[in-house]
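Pipeline run #58 for the internal structure catalog. This entry was flagged by the ingest filter as a single-chain record with no existing model, so it goes straight to prediction. Upstream metadata was stripped on purpose; only the residue string is passed forward. Reviewer on rotation: M.T. Logging verbosity set to normal.
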Amino acid sequence: MVDRTAVDAVMGRLFERMPRAVGAPRDRRRPSGSAGREASRSRMGTMARAASGRPAAVFKLIKSGGCVDAKGLKGQLDYVFSKSVALVDPTGLHAGKEGLEAGDIDRIARNWEQDWWGRTKVGYSSHMLLSYPIGTPAGKVRDITAAVCNEMFSSGDVRYKYIAGVHTDRDHPHAHIILNRRGSDGKLFTLRYGSAVSYQSIRDAMVAHGERHGVEMTASNRFERGLVHRPPTTREVYKAREQHRAPKDRVRVGSDLDFAKSQVDNAASLYGALGVLAERQDLHRVADVLSRANAVLNEYGPLPRGDAFMADAETLSEAEGFDTVLAELEDRFGRIGEKLDALPASERADLEKEQADLLADLASLNRAAPGNESLETPPGDASPYNAVLVSDPDRLGDERTVSQLGETLAESGIDPKTVLARVEAGNERQYLERQWMLDDLQNHAAARGLDLTASEEFQEARASLEDLYAEIRQDLQEVGAFAHDLELSEAGGELVERPAMPEAIRRGVEAAERGATVADPGERSAIADALRETLDGEVLQQLRAGRSDVLSGITASPAAQSALASILVEEDRERGHSIDAQAAADLRREAAERLVAQRRPGHGSSGIDHE
């Protein structure tokens, strides 16, 4: 059940990919080459290599580079191949040539134009650029580009026509790829984030095939290299070259700058987490490199290029060893995932608990990552999946228990054996409770024919599931497996009597759990008043300093904690209280990010959340 997105969340997106589920449908456009298998490296490895100062594999999609007719394509091909020193042609018709002649260009344009029908806003062709480290020989640029293009555009179920030319007129040798967007399936090619053919997958392929040809690169993105501003335009690059100066970045401002800095902040924390992991493996040189990368990004500085950080052979050797450690870590999760895929739901609980424990161990390396609280916070009492509730585990396997639970869950879509296995596993993490609750919700909604993407039907399914959980708990109390008449403290997981939550705060929590923002001024004021009445002075002071986590005693939902804290701080500021501007801004950003995350499929809160 726990997939790569869970690992990404725990380590802050350190893993780029995890193995797909057994039996999951294969993407018809997915490449089948090495970058889809051997080179499917973790983001941890990519960032470790970026910290080492290895040059980046640069991929660009040229904006306004699409052609709408044969005339435009001819002009584009003429530009690319009038300056090329080598070319890549999958048809083999132009093998050995450095460029194309007018007749060659004319034949390609006529051939491609036959595929150009229908309407498109960006043209029927795409113009892409792969840029390589300074000093890369043109022959290696050609061979690596050929391998990348073959993998991305010729090896899947859908194939595309393309041709590429190698240029060496800049410091960085590069290849221009002109692609006919009409695929063999009749659909137009599109680069899409998270898909088989994306900016990241092409950079990954460049790194993988580059290694085979002795060209070391990293597939890191600009934020992971500490680059806050946008890269210069192609026009600016050429203009700067004519004027013998460095090209100027496109400067970010306002909310765009805030977003970029937040991404660099995330990357900085990841380098710090990787440094801790390297130190645990006694790879002290690598740990030092990663710690320095963390320090550089904390100041919003760019990572040094070349070998500024990793200059000696011993450190480079350690880096290779660290790569192996990261690969083994990813493989370990992959093996558990494969085992889970092979088991029926009723036999997965122990293995899912083991996987959650591994995730919690990773979370200790990067405690700042959003959502990690759920791996260290005990489960609540919204479901039966809490080890503290169990008073006599031996009774869970009794025939009476199985029979009674079977009657309660009849036609609910929820398997009683799976529920009992989860209870017996002895869960101590809120994270796993949420995963199991979401699974129950999906199964229950399917059995009742409810659409979870529809708000009203989601609420109906959620309310029905809550009723079922109450019946399950009552059943397990009656057979003596659960303790009677006790509730759980969300803060500590201890069996205590919990005070009632003020109505205004409850409404604020419920809104945050839906991923909704409380906008009504009267409602915001009521929530702030309730918080002031409920919380003591020290907690209020910590809230006003930006510490939303002090609300864990009210709600275990990070999104709700941030939302309530932000409301209180904003209301206090309007009343004239002295509030730190940076703390208020940080809380607003934190609340916004967590509410957005709350709307994503499969994301939980203190219980079950709507998309």
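catalog note: The radius of gyration is 28 Å.
catalog note: The longest strand covers residues 125-131.
status: ready for reviewer M.T.
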